[in-house]
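Exercise 7b. Backbone tokens:
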């Protein structure tokens, strides 16, 4: 449908208010929406309609557009906003689908992609509000979405200089399925029984964590062989032997200057608030005792990773995740410090220790601040850790930003997610993660979603499960 016809028809059927029509966008002025809670409008010569909305102080404060649309249509949304109090998250809901949009700090009105939306034929509700509160909304722009195009092929060469045959083979299989299907994954093997009971399937990827091998953890009583929460190297080697792909994170306990002696909820020494470790200063002093402790920790983790190498098991290696969030100590000192630490870790593991079984994965937060990216020479796969309020959200805004930056450069994955993603809806919108890794636990893992939603996620034709990955023929997923 041509842009001018589509916008004119949409404009004519909007309920209430008047809206401006440009050459390439339909602008829905926030002050013409229905206000809820404490939302109000104020004047500004800098706002698109000379007015904007404010008063977003709680989840009860939001604005709502009601739209009658002539036909089902995919649209690209852009939100015009101002954040005088720093970066914010905002909930953007279209009918039953809600996404959390991250608004970078801006003292003047600016626009950001809010992702793809689907307006159904007939009545549609768009709601904007909630989230982190204390922001200002000026307008919402809608334009017909561009056609979904095939993903560009990424380079076949891994960043590890001497990647093993098994590691290259795993990466080649990921490339082969990329854009056509999405591998299923689950953090922690303890969730597998529930998944299999509900869905009759098992995930391809099992995620583990090397936190129990951090020297600081061991110093104060940690006993990996008896630890059950995160699992041991032996556990994950056994899973790999049965055909699973292994993803490993490392909730690295800071090497020194910690306030907590051991693991405890909310106070673990991988959190910034639980340590005083001066990372930036330490990296500037390679002859210092604290720098030696950094190297000691990396070398200890190399011992565990070598056990996988000796068994011929490649690893989706995901260290230093969610750095730009600042809640972990490795991200508490800015992007340049994080990149220096990443490159030190890369050099020490691949060059000094000669590990050839690592596929390097960098996980962004939903802020997706590219200034934190370590660089193409040190990363094989990029991803995002996302916990949408609406567990059926397609996360298309996050996908689009990563796709614009990395299409043809790196595979893109959903490296952590809450609940069970709707892979079929994602693929219909062009959101084609290489794999997803659902986090564990009753609040954010597979047990946090209805059983039918979990079953749909694993039985979707675009989702690869373990039986398919191993080459056996599963029952018809559409049944």
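Sequence design result:
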């Amino acid at each position: 449908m041509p842009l001018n016809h589509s916008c004119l028809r949409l404009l004519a059927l909007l309920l209430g208010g008047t809206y401006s029509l440009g050459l390439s966008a339909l602008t829905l002025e926030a002050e013409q929406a229905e206000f809820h809670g404490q939302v109000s409008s104020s004047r500004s010569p800098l706002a698109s309609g000379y007015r904007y909305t404010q008063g977003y102080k709680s989840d009860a404060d939001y604005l709502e557009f009601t739209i009658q649309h002539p036909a089902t249509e995919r649209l690209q949304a852009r939100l015009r906003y101002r954040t005088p109090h720093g970066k914010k998250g905002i909930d953007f809901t279209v009918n039953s689908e809600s996404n959390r949009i991250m608004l970078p700090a801006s003292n003047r009105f600016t626009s950001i992609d809010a992702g793809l939306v689907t307006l159904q034929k007939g009545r549609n509700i768009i709601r904007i509000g909630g989230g982190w509160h204390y922001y200002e909304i000026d307008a919402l722009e809608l334009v017909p979405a561009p056609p979904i195009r095939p993903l560009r092929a990424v380079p076949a060469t891994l960043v590890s200089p001497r990647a093993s045959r098994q590691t290259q083979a795993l990466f080649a299989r990921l490339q082969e399925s990329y854009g056509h299907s999405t591998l299923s994954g689950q953090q922690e093997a303890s969730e597998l029984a529930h998944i299999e009971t509900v869905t009759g399937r098992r995930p391809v990827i099992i995620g583990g964590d090397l936190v129990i091998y951090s020297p600081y953890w061991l110093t104060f009583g940690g006993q990996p062989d008896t630890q059950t929460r995160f699992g041991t190297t032996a556990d994950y080697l056994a899973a790999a032997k049965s055909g699973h792909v292994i993803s490993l994170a490392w909730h690295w306990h800071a090497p020194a200057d910690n306030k907590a002696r051991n693991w405890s909820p909310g106070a673990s020494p991988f959190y910034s608030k639980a340590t005083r470790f001066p990372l930036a200063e330490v990296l500037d002093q390679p002859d210092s005792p604290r720098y030696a402790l950094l190297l000691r920790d990396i070398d200890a983790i190399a011992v565990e990773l070598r056990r996988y190498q000796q068994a011929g098991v490649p690893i989706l290696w995901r260290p230093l995740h969610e750095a730009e969030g600042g809640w972990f100590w490795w991200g508490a000192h800015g992007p340049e410090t994080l990149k220096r630490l990443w490159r030190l870790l890369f050099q020490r593991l691949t060059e000094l220790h000669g590990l050839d079984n690592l596929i390097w994965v960098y996980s962004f937060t939903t802020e997706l601040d590219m200034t934190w990216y370590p660089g193409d020479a040190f990363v094989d796969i990029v991803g995002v850790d996302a916990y949408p309020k609406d567990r059926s959200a397609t996360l298309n805004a996050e996908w689009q930003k990563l796709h614009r930056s990395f299409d043809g450069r790196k595979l893109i994955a959903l490296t952590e997610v809450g609940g069970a993603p709707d892979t079929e809806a994602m693929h219909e919108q062009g959101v084609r993660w290489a794999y997803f890794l659902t986090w564990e636990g009753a609040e954010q893992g597979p047990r946090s979603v209805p059983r039918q939603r979990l079953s749909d996620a694993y039985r979707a034709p675009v989702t690869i499960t373990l039986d398919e990955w191993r080459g056996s023929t599963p029952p018809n997923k559409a049944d």
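Instructor comment: Residues 1-24 have pLDDT under 50 and may be disordered. The chain is about 25% helix and 25% strand.
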